[in-house]
Amino acid sequence: MALGRNQKLATFKCDRQIWDRFLARAAENGTSGAELCKWFVSAYVSGEIDPRQHLEDADVERLADGLDKRLAPIYRRLNEFNDRLGKSSEKVTILYP
Is the CB of residue 63 less than 8 Å from the CB of residue 73? Predict the structure, then answer.
């Protein structure tokens, strides 16, 4: 199949297992890997999606989750002290037990 005048054949290296999973998921959703790649390039160029933003959000969420887990014992101790002082209305919310 010949390329059209305004077309570019794009190739890149990718882990075979990831690529196979990508193609399988695309097929499950009624599309092809090629169509998804073309959609991504178009959406990225138009500014519709920004992978950096997704990565930043994921990093912030992961860090917040880890911080909450590390603070949980401190929150428990604060609540114990508040109970001893009779300040049960000043409970600290424990996000992770």
Answer: no
pLDDT tens, position by position, 39-73: 988 988 888 887 777 666 666 677 777 776 777 77
| pTM of the model as a whole | 0.51
Structure-block tokens of residue 4: 């059209």
Contact 94, 72 (CB under 8 A): yes
How is the chain split among helix, strand and coil, in percent rounded to 5?
A: 65, 0, 35
Tokens 């002290």 map to which residue?
A: 81
Predicted confidence band of residue 1 (pLDDT cuts 50, 70, 90): low
